[in-house]
Amino acid sequence: RPPVLLFRRISGWRCLGYFPFSPRRRSQGGGGLHFVCTSSTHSEPKRTHLQMLVLLSGVIGGFTSVIASNVEALNLAQTSPLVFVLVAGLFAAVVMAILNYTRPQFLKSKPKKNNFEPRQLVEEVDGRDKGTPDAWIKRDPSLIRLTGRHPFNCEPPLKDLLDAGFITPTKIHFVRNHGKVPKIKWEDHKVTVKGLVNNPRVFTMDEIVSLPSHELPVTFPCAGNRRKEENMVKKGLGFSWGAAAHATSVWKGVRLSTLLKECGLKTKEEGAKFVCFRGPKKELPKGKDGSYGTSIAIDRAMQDNWDVILAYEQNGKPLAPDHGFPLRIIIPGFIGGRMVKWLQHIEVTSKESENHFHYYDNRVLPSEVTAERANEQDWWHNPDFIINDINIQSAIRSPEHKEIVTPTEGTYTVRGYAFAGGGRKVIRAEVSLDEGRTWTLATIKRFEADWYKKHGTVEQQRNYDSRGKHWCWVHWSIDLEKKALCGAKELRCRAWDQDHNTQPLHIAWNVMGMLNNSSYRLRIHETKTESGETGFWFEHPCLAGPQPGGWMVPEEEVRAQALYASLGGIDPRKVPDEKFTVADIEKRNKEEKGVWVAIDGLVFDASSVLAEQPPKGVEITIGGTTFAQDFAGLSKPKEVTLTNKYQGGKLACKGKLSK
């Protein structure tokens, strides 16, 4: 037993069992301890582990055989067999420790070669993607596009998200892309690990897949989930997410801690305090190197109960292009903005990431701080306002927007979702029919524990209840009397987590429109059904993206105002009544000074950006893009400047485009 413990202490390997030394076989050779060993990070021996096992058995067997055959010569006839075991075990532990540290070539197993392709989710390319850099990706056309044709940012209809059940089908998982999706081949992709590690390495994807894997279900949202409600209060910096900008998938990959241990992570005392990640360089128009990056604290990265993984599978198959093929980081409990896709670079550092998007995105600034003030006074670098863990959240799926309920006898089932961050458990969901003065408990349906019972490893099944981490959403429902429901002016919901955090009654506006978790409110209006009966229809606060409707959007301005609030540009109430054709604009540009263009159906004076008419014509589509993609042959700097000025309302509007 002591050699077993010593071997485990020195080599870092775990012994699952052993067979004691047999004195009867000592003279025959081949006696000694036999170990079944595994890495301390996984419960299944890998190929390299078996090689170590064979080598260890040979070392011990050979050592004891030599001693046994020379008992008389060495004056050891009276020595207890246990002494042989102790000495042999000590010798083997030292040898194994040296080999485990140096890993000579003969012990290294070649990883299995894989030929994974990026996963396509539907059969055909959506017509809206044709002519864009993402025309090679096949996307579900039912997804609600929030930023025009490109880049691709979307969410599913809320009813589709909940009706799909616990695990969200990959094809309707929300997507947040800042630019075009990079085309990456599995066999070419590499991940560099550097910084405060003893052995910096470059991993191939096959090498990453060969490491011990970890699989679990995780819910995460975009930090802008329900941002459109904030944009209806006051237009902020972001586009208008609805209430379905979140999803739940089963992710499989290698623990980040495993990868860092492979590289010999340095200690905190040596400065290792953060782990920084980034995707491909020159992917985006902002930042020093055009990459998307961020960082997390080293404790979150290294403690296995936080379940941080580098994922290469989603819902049992290789990642889709929009979700980071071939590799992305998954940080349970965090917002999606920290889960870098197309992961290429990992660096252990003494300070947070310096990437542009780590500071200028995913912040909740005080309500009084405008974009101009944030830039002038540099609020972006204040560490107090960074977003990492998700806050408590809930919303209502049923009744749907514009659904009609008649006040007959019986009950109506109100349904919704709730989730929380940081591994905190959702402990209750409740609804109110009197504008938040009193609340009634709903029934919560949980899925996570059942998933582990059916699909988890033995270790996951054993430890799920004791680890105190809850990474997934819940569904809730409550049966209300139809007469009571229809007699109310509004229906609200809210949820609570295990730390007794709940949702506020009102929106706390912030310039980035993030972490809006005010109680979700449906207004109730009397109407007549097709049969002439009195009924009551339910109005959600607003619908995702440019979709019209919702009590937060004035009905007489629904379409134009919703588009303006979601995509930027010019307030439709300030558009002149004059109309121009394309021919009118081109003629004017030839005969007079300055350049006019037609953007998204409106005519603007773009002289502050353009010195001459665009080479491919004056009609331009911008929509909700964060940088240009269909700009009539303009150079990239001109595209970006034109987009920023258009969406910021800095171009003088001259009228409407007439076909």
Description:
The chain is of the alpha+beta class and 659 residues long. 23% of the residues lie in helices and 23% in strands. The protein has 16 helices and 30 strands. It has a six-stranded antiparallel beta sheet. A five-stranded mixed beta sheet has the order 7-6-15-10-11. A hairpin with a 2-residue loop joins strand 27 and strand 28. The radius of gyration is 31 Å and the shape is globular. The N terminus is likely disordered.
What's a quick, concise take on this entry?
This protein is α+β, with helices and mostly antiparallel strands. 23% of the residues lie in helices and 23% in strands.
Report how far apart the termini are: 88 Å
Query: For the residues shown, what is the average pLDDT?
Result: 84
Fraction in beta strands: 15-25%
Unreliable stretches covering 5 or more consecutive residues: 1-48, 624-629
List the helices and strands and how they pair.
Layout: H1 2-11, E1 13-19, E2 34-39, H2 47-69, H3 81-102, E3 144-145, E4 153-155, H4 158-163, E5 175-176, E6 190-195, E7 201-204, H5 205-210, E8 213-221, H6 227-233, E9 246-255, H7 256-262, E10 274-278, E11 293-297, H8 298-302, E12 309-314, E13 317-318, E14 328-330, E15 345-349, H9 356-359, H10 371-377, E16 393-398, E17 404-405, E18 411-419, E19 426-432, E20 440-441, E21 443-445, H11 448-455, H12 458-467, E22 474-481, H13 482-486, E23 490-497, E24 520-528, E25 534-539, H14 558-567, E26 579-580, H15 582-591, E27 596-599, E28 602-605, E29 619-620, H16 636-647, E30 652-657
Parallel strand pairs: 6-15, 26-30, 27-29
Antiparallel strand pairs: 1-2, 3-4, 4-5, 6-7, 8-9, 9-12, 10-11, 10-15, 12-13, 12-14, 16-18, 17-25, 18-22, 19-20, 19-23, 21-22, 23-24, 24-25, 27-28, 28-30
Helix pairs in contact: 1-3, 2-3
